[in-house]
Amino acid sequence: MAGRRLRVTLASHEALDQYMRFRDLSNAQLATKVGVSTATIAHLRRPRGRKTCDPALAPKIEKALNAPPGSLFLAEVIDDYSGDNRNGPAITTRKTA
Q1: Cα–Cα distance between 67 and 17 in angstroms, integer?
Q2: Ordered per-residue pLDDT tens for the chain, 97 residues
Q3: In terms of Cα–Cα distance, which of 47, 20, 46, 22 is closest to 31?
Q4: Which of 46, 53, 61, 85 yields a CA-CA distance of 20 to 30 A from 8?
C-alpha cells in the first residue's frame, strides 16, 4: 500500500534568524504567536538544528513574520511505498505554495 505525505523543510536557518531579528521577535515570542514550544523555534533557528517541521506550522511562522508564503519553507511530496524497499521511500519533489 502506497502513502503520500508532505515534508516541509526550512530553506535557511539564516533567513529565519534575519526575519526574526527584523521583526524584533524572540524565540519565545514567535513560539507564542504560532502555538509551539520555545524549543521548537530555537531548534529551527539554530544553524545545526532541525530543518523540518509540521506542514501546518510553516505557514504560521511565515505569517507571524509577515514573510511571503513559501519564502522560508520548501514543501516536498513524499511517496512512501510499503513492502521490500531497500532504497527507502521514493521522493517526488513538487514545490507547493
Answers
A1: 12
A2: 468 888 899 999 999 999 999 999 999 999 999 999 999 999 999 988 889 999 999 999 999 999 999 999 998 888 875 544 545 554 445 555 5
A3: 20
A4: 85
DSSP collapsed to 3 states, the chain? CEEEEEEEEECCHHHHHHHHHHCCCCHHHHHHHHCCCHHHHHHHHCCCCCCEECCCHHHHHHHHCCCCCCCCEEEEEEEEECCCCCCCCEEECCCCC
Cell 514550544 identifies what position? 37
Short-list 22, 53, 29, CA closest to 40: 53
* pTM of structure: 0.77
Residue found by looking up cell 545545526 in the block = 48
Furthest CA-CA distance within the chain: 49
Per the structure block, which three cell numbers stand in for 20? Answer: 526574526
